Amino acid sequence: MQNIKGKVVAITGASSGMGKAIAIGLAKNGAKVVLGARRTEQLQQIVEEIKSTGGEATSAKIDVKNKADLVRFVNTAVEQYGALDVIVNNAGVSQLSRIDELDIDDWEEMIDINLKGVLYGMAAAIPIFKQQQSGHIVNIISTSGIKIVPMQGVYAGTKNAIRTIAEAFRQESEGNIRITGVSPGFVKTDFANNIKNEEMKTTIQKGMEQIAINPLAIANAVIYALSQPNNVEIGDIVIRPSKQN
Ligand SMILES: NC(=O)c1ccc[n+]([C@@H]2O[C@H](COP(=O)([O-])OP(=O)(O)OC[C@H]3O[C@@H](n4cnc5c(N)ncnc54)[C@H](OP(=O)(O)O)[C@@H]3O)[C@@H](O)[C@H]2O)c1
After folding, report:
1. From edge to edge, which strands make up the β-sheet containing 8-12?
2. What percentage of the chain has pLDDT greater than the value 90?
């Protein structure tokens, strides 16, 4: 794929689901990928899988709640491969509840991971991108922030905060650093397994079983965005199952 070969791409939340698919998809197209997440065993397995098919990959244990982890993460890319061309801020969690349930701990978890975690990723990458005078930020957002429904207010809020921040950054960056938002709808991953509200968990899992699309669709969107020439910035991509209402 044009413009992907040799690119150094760091991906957060690469131990499963979309992050894993993005890492494998990019590596197949010749990118050097750096996988970050908390579950090191899964990361190691994916790295081995990529290497066994001739790809280049490494991993780092990171918790996106810790800003120092993100700095270490991007430095791993630079130390190992000599540059950082792209950061994919993909790590995310969701807890779904009514606002008046006041699930404040879960709100904070989502804000820490989905919002602050992405900002930490951007903050770690931007100095390197500035020095190189080039770079690309890809944020995995959600259709939850587009069609806003009950029970998903705070989750959608964290995702839409990223959309808002990205638009300001796009204008500020004057073209040297590109920024892309990818908003998936239902995608078949383990994402719903961590939802504590049993009723919501079952609803989401049912939706997943019935209509969710393969994470490959999201990987392909990231590949599309990264394969553009330097003067082309893909802004927002929304990918839903055709049947998602
Ligand atoms: N699946 C969907 O239907 C859907 C729809 C719209 C948007 N999304 C978004 O897509 C992204 C990926 O989700 P997924 O569906 O692929 O689910 P997933 O399989 O559960 O993947 C989530 C990833 O985030 C990582 N992660 C979570 N907390 C982390 C932390 N504190 N530090 C570092 N990594 C952390 C997890 O790794 P560890 O547990 O190993 O740390 C895992 O690799 C998320 O941002 C999610 O909001 C998902």
Report:
1. 56-61, 32-37, 8-12, 86-89, 135-140, 177-184, 236-239
2. 94
